[in-house]
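Input record (one chain):
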Amino acid sequence: MRVSLLTNGPGELWGWVRPVAMELRRRGHSVSLWLLPCPFASGHEREAASLLGIDKLEGPSGGPDLWRAMADERTECVIQLGGDMMFGARIARSARAPLLCYTYGPKKGLKGARVFTAFPSQARAIPGARAIGDLVKDALLLDAAQPPERGCPTLPQEAPGREWAHPKEGFRVLFLPGSRPSIRHAALPWLAAARAALRVRLPRAEVRTLFPPFVPEAELREWDDAGLRPVRAPAGLVMRDADFALTQPGTNNFELMHCGVPSLVVAPESFLDLIPIAGLRGVLASLPLVGRGLRRAAAQRILNRWNGVIALPNRLTDRRVMDELYGDVTPEQTASRIAEDLSDAGGLARAREELLALSGQSGAAARLCDAIPAEDGAA
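The corresponding structure, as predicted from the sequence alone:
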């Protein structure tokens, strides 16, 4: 069977598409992948996608050429794994193929699609959705497979080495600066200041900074020069070695949850101008006089929708399973909160327990592929 996958951002590509593409290939299906326009893109999506062993790769591109090319796609099933649903509907309608969608939350254009999500609480918020588990957990298991599972795409090796020696009477703290170059650029001095402040409070704490695939070597050297010890390696290996993590809102919140890593999720107000916004609002948000107000309003709407929480695991439970800070947050305040969290051994143990309890079962990719209608039209 020919199956078309659609995706957009780096988290969806490596965390969702990768396990689904591998499962489809294992079942003998032909797989094409469309990389959609995305304001959150890292710029390295095509390079990463080329490792997936798919039969056809399109994009990233936009405009009339993309729209016309989608009308010519010949496929028997469309699976949307991120991005605007109008693209999946375009291919499905032209090819007269069923449309499946995996999403963490409600979005426009789901009518007419079979919808799947990760967790029961998410399914309750999406009409007609079925919870099948988190694809990100499947991706982490691919990372941790030793030796790597046959056909599993691997990442470029990190520099410097991944191994951590457990510091005596200290902690292993993992920083995650994200996949977007503009935010990483701003985060470097901010995280360097946080590390310096943390060393004052916890001199024996050892910090590593985890990078996504295909970050240039020159950028890694900048982070190494700043004392932030960059590591470019599969998340499923590095995260499990950490005692604690400092991160921002995003897919890696679920990665840390599945690995049982107590974490502090931080969203400093000073980074607000660097967060991309899709569509017309994104164009307006780029204007110098009105942009910041629009971004503040968008951020407040998100907080109101989720009862004032920003960490993804906290949204599943409406309570703080992960610690979080947002607003006018400084590196020094962040370091103080990390030191405070690490001083509470009981709290760390409870956080690990709760995070792993939320993780759920693996096998989401297999369950999603099981839902593909058979070629004769039977479900």
